[in-house]
Amino acid sequence: VMHRPAGRCCTAVILVIVLSIRSCGNDSIVEYRFQKVGKGEVVRTVFVTGKISFSDIHTVDNETSSGIVETVKAGLNAHVRKGDILATIKSDDLQFSAKQTKESFIQSTIALEAARDLLDQKKKLLQSNVIGKKEVEEAQRNLDRVLSVHRSNQNLMDKLNKDIESCTVKAPYSGQVVEVMAIPGMNVAKG
Fold first, then answer.
1. Which residues pair with 88 in a beta bridge?
2. Alpha carbon separation from 119 to 12, 129, 131 (Å, rounded)
3. Is residue 152 classed as helix, strand or coil in its secondary structure?
4. ∠ CA 168-169-171 to the nearest 5 degrees?
5. Cα(50)–Cα(53) distance, rounded to whole angstroms?
6. Could you give the strand order of the β-sheet that contains 85-90, starting from the edge strand earlier in sequence?
7. What mean pLDDT comes out for the span 8-20?
8. DSSP 158-174
9. What is the DSSP letter of 89?
């Protein structure tokens, strides 16, 4: 068993650390300069290691519809303009809801026309003194109820049309696609 004095062991470790730090490059001081990167012509090519980060990244999420990715129109590194179609989503649930709401809207439109016609007839009969004022007021209340249902169906149709439109994912900005996280056939959820 050999014993070394404690002082020499510490000196050797410190010397190795100092030598390895000094040998990581030449003895000159390394200076880093940062510049904003933008479009333009390449003037000089420099080979370096490091990480490039983007200063202006916009994530495009599917905000309102869930379903299956039908198409992906813009791939990695694609240049897109604001409004370009990036992907389309097929939502059977949304299509089914839209069909039911459209049928309800058509029925409420028919009911609205019938209620208007009935009120007009009641007003004419009142002018001829065939019926009383109460019957006209009742026809007016009925028209108001039918109109309320019709407006509700219209609002629902408008919302569903927006949701269906959102199944077409569009670029909110002009730029370059740096990551694509969807493939055709993939299930996607809202958000």
1. 71, 168
2. 105, 15, 12
3. helix
4. 135
5. 10
6. 168-170, 85-90, 67-72, 187-188
7. 39
8. HHHHHHHHTTEEE-SS-
9. E
CA atoms within a 13 Å half-sphere pointing along the CA-CB vector of 176: 8
pTM above 0.90, yes or no: no
Distance CA 134, CA 140 (A): 10
What are the strands, taking DSSP E only, across the chain?
67-72, 79-80, 85-90, 168-170, 175-176, 187-188
| d(C-alpha 89, C-alpha 167), whole Å | 5
The pair of structure tokens assigned to 35 is 């510049």
For residue 97, give the 3-state DSSP assignment.
helix
pLDDT (0 to 100) of residue 55: 59
Can you read off the two tokens belonging to residue 67? 């379903």
Question: Phi/psi zone of residue 102: left (φ > 0), alpha (ψ -120 to 50 degrees), beta?
Answer: alpha
Q: Which two tokens stand for residue 171?
A: 């670029």
- Could you tell me the two tokens for 29? 């001081």
